[in-house]
Write a structure and sequence with these properties.
Length: 315
């Protein structure tokens, strides 16, 4: 469990990758494994379609923090979790900040109804990304003084936007800090720049599939993170691999032969892309199989089992 103990010491773990590769369910797996280690985990998503709750079979967040009370049963049994999820909309965070600073409700409503304010929210570069990271930083920031200081959560696992948008999310604080040097926004941008740049506080996980387009985008994503953020991902998760094709001949009807040939070709494609990733990607990598389960607790438990088995083997 060295790799996950390593990640467990972080305050923020950003999970990104091409859309459609299983990023959300991998976010859930990582969060649940960190909860196994005793960390108080908040799973944060920014997609308004809200899909993270389906993995745990709990109600949609609707912007609220939803506590997940039933741990997944796996080979180690079940232990109490401290695991929650939230669907976060950047606009709501910005409006909450306005309320916090203005204090007067009438003035707050007038500001938020202003066309200038609406255009600012929609058009200001990096503002929404800054709002998301600000909320993640807020919930792991200790409150109080001395021994009584504590944070709401130990770590936030962020189901980040896909590929290029994920890079933009992590690059936004530095870009905003260069433009806005003073005031609360400038100060927050500098604080978040330091958070993202610190590998002891922020970890980056990339999810992909062993297919030509996702694998190509993954390598481009790595380069973009190094160039724009100055960071290298801690982990690559290659998801939904076809099972190895048997060496012995397989007999079957013509319909079966079509499916068998499809299996063979898909697995051969997986192996080509895995070979390229092994050459081009320096660092930790996990490979997870395609599993016959819909999104939900059954799939989560199976992926947890597979990931734990690989971690044991690596150890």
């Amino acid at each position: 469990m060295g790799l996950f103990e390593h990640l467990a010491s972080r305050q923020l773990i950003v999970v990104t990758g091409k859309g459609g590769v299983g990023k959300t369910v991998i976010t859930a797996v990582i969060g649940s494994l960190l909860a196994d280690l005793g960390r108080r985990v908040l799973l944060l998503e920014v997609d308004p379609r809200e899909s993270l709750h389906q993995v745990f079979d709990v109600p949609p967040s609707g912007g609220e923090i939803v506590r997940i009370t039933a741990p997944v049963q796996d080979r180690d049994g079940a232990a109490p979790w401290s695991l929650s999820l939230q669907n976060l909309q950047p606009r709501q965070v910005i409006e909450a900040l306005v309320r916090q600073h203005l204090h007067i409700e009438l003035l707050t409503r007038r500001v938020m109804a202003s066309p200038v304010f609406q255009h600012f929210i929609e058009g200001a570069p990096g503002l929404k990304e800054l709002a998301v990271l600000s909320e993640a930083e807020r919930v792991v920031r200790p409150r109080g003084k001395g021994r009584s200081a504590h944070a709401a959560f130990d770590v936030v696992v962020l189901d980040a936007p896909a590929t290029g948008h994920g890079v933009s999310l992590l690059a936004a604080p530095h870009l905003v800090a260069e433009v806005i040097e003073r005031g609360p926004i400038g100060a927050q941008a500098r604080a978040l720049t330091a958070l993202v740049a610190d590998p002891q506080r922020t970890g980056i996980v990339v999810v992909t599939r062993a297919e030509e387009m996702p694998a190509h985008e993954t390598l481009e994503l790595r380069e973009a993170l190094e160039e724009q953020v100055g960071r290298t991902p801690e982990l690559l998760v290659v998801n939904a691999l076809y099972p190895p094709f048997p060496t012995a001949a397989i007999e079957g009807s013509p319909d079966d032969r079509f499916l068998i040939d499809l299996w063979r070709r898909r697995r051969e494609g997986n192996e080509r892309e895995l070979a390229q990733l092994a050459t081009a990607w320096q660092g930790s990598r996990l490979e997870l199989p395609m599993l016959p389960a819909d999104r939900g607790l059954r799939l989560l438990a199976a992926l947890r089992h597979e990931m734990l088995a690989q971690l044991d083997q690596a150890a």
